[in-house]
Write a structure and sequence with these properties.
By secondary structure, the protein is α+β, with helices and mostly antiparallel strands. It has three domains: about 290 residues, no CATH class; about 110 residues, no CATH class; about 60 residues, Arc Repressor Mutant, subunit A (Orthogonal Bundle), CATH 1.10.10.410. The strands form four sheets. A nine-stranded mixed sheet has the order 2-6-7-10-1-11-12-13-14. Strands 5-4-15 form a three-stranded antiparallel sheet, with no helix packed on it. α5 crosses α6, α7 packs across α9 and α9 packs antiparallel against α10. The chain is elongated, with a radius of gyration of 29 Å. The termini are far apart. About 35% of the residues are buried. It comes from Clostridium tyrobutyricum DIVETGP. Heterotrimer of A, B and C subunits. This is Aspartyl/glutamyl-tRNA(Asn/Gln) amidotransferase subunit B.
């Protein structure tokens, strides 16, 4: 008997505004705890909210980019719940009349379009405060209370944990591209609640749903959904009854834990927010916002494939981050083979960026300097291995590649006569390798090539070295 999962995601995105949703307090991340607060975001008696216009514009911009219908008329509502992170004891959000509805994302696997993942709605709301749990108790920082959010709610169209990750990655790339959020998951700017149920493949009725709260990494989301699928399957197969509940993901223990029984909409006692007027947006305003949207990642990827003749998969990876896409495009304009630029950016540069927890924007060298390095490697002035050494120095100090090569005497040796002398010497010093080769062990050539490259400190042209080693082995 085969089972399948049904997954929907609720993604919370902090908007890149300077001030909070209903007051003028700063949204700066990392400030001294409880320093960016006022009577409005602390929910003090008599304080009245005022809606942040920029947050509404950003939400509309996100809705357009995600193929949503923008509602000309919407309103704010009160969602009542009692918890220390909610200073007013209610959250100002949207219930029956959200700002955006009925959108979609074309989900791609390995750079190939597959199918639409429908987006049910996008609504605006305020963030809650942040709790810090310690051995002596729980501390609360209200700086985050009132920060503008959009919540993007998908339909239950996602089939696997891997698809959920791909959906979230594409969503992030679009939101960053249009500039409505920095989507820094490590700072909580992008958080995700995953809803998952399982059912027999032949059945149409969905199973009992579990919600996994506040996952803040792609790997965490995938692992949490995989764990929950196995837990639900084990429960069903053992004859137990699944309960609809909210669970939290523990990254360290790699498992979910029950938080509470799942609430329903009527548990929150939604009602219209009386302190804020309705939101009315004209078609003219919507079109004005539409014209501020830049080329979206999937359109840019298609252009890279058509104009620069790189693979769909490479184009998909390069356009996941707008800064990376910009760096690639600016580099590729200066080199004959854009594929070389893609390889360097997705290879050594991405590795160095990840190792140092930097971003492409923080690179100390320019696309022009990278293009110069690529030309030096492609023309055979230096080997690919020497290029990697030069790249390390460019990344560390931001120097020009020719300056690094000259200073460290890293020019590639392309003299066949000089290399031939080294080949003969190394083979003479290692007669066992020649004997192994004669006995059919062709890997002996790799051993000799390695010794030669070590002897020349990587400067010998590897193509010439391989040719001469094979020639010499076959002559003897």
């Amino acid at each position: 008997m085969k089972f399948e999962s049904t997954i929907g995601l609720e993604v919370h995105v902090e908007l890149l505004t300077n001030t909070k949703m209903y007051c003028g307090c700063s949204t700066e991340f990392g400030a001294k705890p409880n320093s960016h607060v006022c009577p409005v975001c602390l929910g003090l008696p008599g304080a009245l909210p005022k809606l942040n216009r920029k947050a509404v514009e950003y939400a509309v911009k996100a809705g357009i980019a995600l193929n949503c219908t923008i509602n000309n008329h919407s309103r704010m509502d009160r969602k009542n719940y009692f918890y220390p992170d909610c200073p007013k004891n209610y959250q100002i959000t949207q219930d029956k009349f959200p700002l955006c509805r009925d959108g979609y994302i074309d989900l791609e696997t390995n750079g190939t379009k597959t199918r639409k993942i429908r987006i049910e709605r996008i609504h605006i709301e305020e963030d809650a405060a942040k709790l810090f749990h310690t051995d002596s108790g729980t501390l609360i920082d209200y700086n985050r209370a009132g920060v503008p959010l959009i919540e993007i709610v998908s339909k239950p169209d996602i089939k696997t944990p891997k698809e959920a990750t791909l959906y979230l990655q594409k969503l992030k790339s679009i939101l960053q591209c249009i500039g409505v959020s920095d989507c820094k998951m490590e700072q909580g700017s992008l958080r995700c609640d995953g809803n998952i149920s399982i059912k027999k493949m032949e059945e149409s009725k969905l199973g009992v749903k579990t919600e996994i709260k506040n996952v803040n990494s792609f790997k965490g989301l995938e692992k949490a959904l995989e764990y929950e699928y196995k837990r639900q399957l084990k429960t069903i197969q053992s004859g137990e009854i699944l309960k609809q509940e909210t669970r939290r993901w523990d990254d360290i223990k790699s498992k979910t834990f029950v938080m509470r029984n799942k609430e329903h909409a009527n548990d929150y006692r939604y009602f219209p927010e009386g302190d804020l007027v309705a939101i009315n947006i004209s078609d003219e305003e919507i079109e004005k916002i539409r014209h501020t949207i830049p080329e979206l990642p999937y359109n840019r990827a298609a252009r890279f494939v058509n104009q620069m003749h790189i693979s769909r998969q490479d184009a998909y990876v390069l356009t996941m981050d707008m800064d990376t896409a910009d760096f690639f495009e600016n580099t590729s304009k200066l080199v004959e083979r854009p594929k070389s630029a893609a390889n360097w950016i997705m290879g050594d540069i991405e590795r160095l960026v990840n190792e140092t927890s930097r971003s492409i924007k923080e690179l100390k060298f320019t696309p022009k300097q990278l293009s110069e390095l690529i030309k030096l490697v492609d023309s055979g002035v230096i080997s690919n291995n020497i290029g990697k050494i030069v790249m390390e120095e460019m990344f560390r100090a931001g120097k020009n590649p020719d300056e690094i090569i000259k200073k460290n005497k890293l020019d590639q040796n392309n003299s066949r006569d000089e290399i031939y002398g080294i080949v003969r010497r190394i083979i003479d010093e290692n007669p066992k390798s020649l004997e192994d080769y004669k006995n059919g062990k062709k890997r002996a050539t790799k051993f000799i090539v390695g010794l030669i490259m070590k002897d020349t400190k990587g400067k010998a042209n590897p193509k010439i070295v391989n040719e001469l080693v094979n020639e010499e082995f076959n002559k003897r």
